[in-house]
Design a protein that fits this description.
The protein contains four helices and eleven strands, in the order H-H-H-E-E-E-E-H-E-E-E-E-E-E-E. By secondary structure, the protein is an alpha+beta fold. It has three domains: 70 residues, Arc Repressor Mutant, subunit A, CATH 1.10.10.10; 30 residues, no CATH class; 90 residues, Umud Fragment, subunit A. A seven-stranded antiparallel β-sheet has the order 5-6-11-7-8-9-10, with no helix packed on it. Strand 7 and strand 8 form a beta hairpin. The protein is elongated, with a radius of gyration of 25 Å. The two termini are 32 Å apart.
Length: 206
């Protein structure tokens, strides 16, 4: 949750049910309906709801009507982050693959997460030297900041002349080879380079 008050996984489920109920029906589910859905007793649901009201995450309507619960206006849910995109199916380049029946979510934060010790940054690509790696002019590369790089990884390297380049990294005997993925370009050789980051993903705006 993005608010300061913490909630338990069960309380988050209750909040989601209330949110979805109000969106679909215009009113919240009853305590009994929440309990039936989550296999909880009505008393247990009541206790969770009271705790959420005390935290300011839920509000009761006038006269404590059964379906008057509403979510706090400034409450943001984890499944509403803009980086979460519905994954509705799979498609193959050769033949169709049937859609996923059980709707899933692709979270870009998970896909491009750098881990606890790192951070990510984005660069826009200019040029076609990495086209055979499916990185085209105008694409955005998501990079993990750090110097730890393995042979064959695509990196952002800072050269001695102060220019940065996007190439595949290879450590050879006594030198480093920055290899383009386009036969029209020649590799760059250097004794050492300053690795700015390793590419972990590519985003293309259509």
């Amino acid at each position: 949750m993005s608010k300061e008050p913490t909630v338990t996984p069960r309380q988050l489920e209750i909040l989601r049910l209330i949110r979805d109920g109000r969106r679909q029906n215009g009113f919240s589910p009853t305590m009994q309906e929440i309990g039936d859905r989550l296999h909880l007793s009505k008393v247990t649901v009541f206790e969770h709801v009271e705790a959420l009201v005390a935290k300011g995450l839920l509000h009761r309507g006038s006269q404590h009507k059964a379906r008057s619960l509403r979510i706090a206006d400034d409450l943001a849910f984890p499944d509403e982050r803009p980086t979460r995109i519905p994954l509705v199916g799979r498609v193959a380049a050769g033949q169709p693959i049937e859609a996923i029946e059980d709707r899933q979510i692709l979270d870009l934060e998970d896909v491009f997460a750098a881990g606890a010790s790192g951070e990510t940054f984005v660069l826009q690509v200019t040029g076609d030297s990495m086209i055979d790696e499916h990185i085209a002019d105008g694409d955005y590369v998501i990079c993990r900041r750090g110097k730890d790089v393995r042979n064959g990884e695509t990196v952002v390297a800072l050269l001695d002349n102060g220019e940065a380049t996007l190439k595949k990294f290879y450590r050879e005997r006594g030198r480093i080879r920055l290899q383009p993925a386009n036969p029209a370009f020649k590799p760059i050789y250097a004794r050492d380079v300053d690795i700015q980051g390793v590419v972990v993903g590519v985003v293309r705006k259509m």
